[in-house]
Recover the amino acids of this structure.
């Protein structure tokens, strides 16, 4: 028995080594395309064109144009995160607790998985083709119901239009994240509350929502970071007509008129910092939510 116990760890070493070899591509990919680029951005934010260490780039973030772009991005991200959480929660509650047919639930979950990753130029084109000046829905409302969207002030190339576009992937992402948390609500909790005379509203207010609160706040933070870091969709839809942080960053690094890469590094550093804080809040609240469910 002693000999077998001594040989067992040695026998497991090849398997453990194989496991590390299996995850090596992930670490290599993360290092080359996430860690090293992020370090390059951080270092570039604190250097000037001559390679000298400076805080001038970060000071430029307080200029009226750049600070206004950050505030518009924060407002846009917060609005779409709140609306995404609200509508996504209602949809997730309907398919998990509402007794809908299983085929409908599977269809919504499948669609949410696809829509949450549908962004960039294809999403912008889809909304222009749908809600643009000659879009399908725009012309349908005008010809069939006499409603002129653009005559009433709506414009797809605007803050509201970009918010509607972001909701296309924000709501499905909320559905995917919050559905497992809703499934974790134990039936015994509701039965115990009802046996004590609690109504449905009291159950949600005193039992369900306190349990779901960490998941809801964490998902809100994640949706905020998801919208704040969206670049391709905003550029493809609005071009330079809406000044938000990703578009200002693109103009500084790749633009023909504005070309200050180190200021672009500083803008990217500010965006990384905000999204890191939001993702950190999500991770902490997610861990707390998992402890609650257990």
């Amino acid at each position: 028995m002693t000999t077998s116990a001594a040989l067992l760890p040695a026998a497991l070493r090849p398997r453990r080594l194989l496991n590390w070899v299996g995850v090596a591509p992930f670490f290599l990919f993360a290092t080359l395309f996430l860690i090293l680029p992020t370090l390059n951005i951080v270092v570039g934010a604190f250097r000037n064109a001559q390679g000298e260490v400076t805080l001038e780039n970060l000071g430029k973030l307080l200029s009226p144009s750049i600070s206004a772009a950050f505030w518009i991005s924060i407002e846009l991200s917060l609005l779409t995160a709140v609306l995404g959480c609200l509508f996504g929660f209602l949809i997730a509650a309907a398919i998990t607790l509402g007794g809908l047919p299983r085929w409908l639930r599977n269809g919504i979950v499948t669609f949410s998985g696809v829509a949450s990753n549908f962004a960039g130029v294809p999403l912008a084109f889809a909304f222009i083709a749908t809600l643009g000046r000659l879009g399908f829905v725009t012309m349908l409302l005008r010809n069939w119901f006499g409603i002129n969207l653009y005559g009433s002030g709506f414009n797809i190339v605007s803050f509201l239009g970009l918010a509607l576009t972001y909701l296309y992937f924000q709501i499905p992402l909320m559905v995917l994240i919050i559905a497992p948390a809703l499934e974790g609500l134990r039936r015994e909790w509701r039965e115990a509350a009802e046996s004590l005379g609690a109504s449905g509203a009291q159950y949600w207010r005193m039992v369900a929502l306190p349990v779901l609160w960490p998941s809801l706040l964490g998902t809100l933070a994640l949706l905020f970071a998801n919208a704040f870091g969206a670049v391709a969709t905003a550029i493809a839809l609005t071009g330079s007509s809406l000044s938000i942080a990703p578009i200002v960053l693109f103009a500084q690094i790749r633009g023909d008129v504005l070309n200050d890469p180190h200021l672009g590094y500083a803008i990217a550093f500010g965006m990384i910092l905000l999204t890191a804080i939001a993702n950190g809040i999500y991770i902490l609240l997610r861990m707390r939510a998992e402890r609650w469910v257990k």
User: Anything to note?
Assistant: Residues 1-8 have pLDDT under 50 and may be disordered. The chain is about 80% helix and 0% strand. The two ends are 38 Å apart (CA to CA). Residues 1-45 form one domain.
